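**Backbone geometry record:**
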Amino acid sequence: MTDASSKESKIQDSETRNDSTGLNPEVPDWDATAFQDIDYHRRQFAEPYRSTVAFGKFVQSIVSCPEGEALDVACGAGANILHLSRILKNYYWNGIDIAGNVLFPYSNPIFKEHEIKVNLVVGNYYRLAEIFHRKFDLVFSIQTLLTIPAYEQAVDQLLAVTGKWLFVTGLFTDFNIDAKIEVMDYSWSVGTQGPYYYNVYGLDRFRGYCEARGCKEFITQDFEIDIDLKPPESRGFGTYTQTLSNGRRLQFTGPLLMPWKFIAIRMA
């Protein structure tokens, strides 16, 4: 592994630990989980993950309008907003996260330093329509749908505030199967070990659900990472890769294979 790859491994060793959504009622304290995850959010700001770079290119290939308003749902501290704002330069950004009281004090000075105006809201993924009372040109749900017991209610809320495009990243397969995967990460401290979800959904069923609610266009792209990553030293959840004989890299976290997809859903 090169020095660059080693650095990326350290940055991404917990890339699959998702930003707080507030959707799993079995997790007792999302603020405590977010506080333990502060280093993860700081690393996101320092250098974009390979998935963030690839996702940005995917978004850029689809969005044709040069300006508008965007919302990142379950935005964490807001690192994705920082990186995407460099691509979508004339958009006004909003972010919402259930653990914003913990995370936003770390990100507000960063946005101020980069002269990026962002409206950061502390709130629940399940109440987007109630909180915002309007639609956004672009809505983002990045690495969040896999972390909840089922996606239907969350997608209803996302579509309710989407004016043009909803962008989703998550674990999807071409099999007609949904896998509900509940995990406990014992490398974390007591009270934040879970249970968490790493659900994998059948893409066709997800597409059908969106189309039944007004989706006009549904675009997908597989994400395959382009660097080698070692398993985390903690032996807890975190991205690592295994390389096949043809050079293709498979991504894992703990015992789970992660079939990442980028999805763009056009509503207007």
Notes: The domain at 3-266 is CATH 3.40.50.150 (Rossmann fold). Residues 1-28 have pLDDT under 50 and may be disordered. The first strand starts at residue 67 and ends at 73.
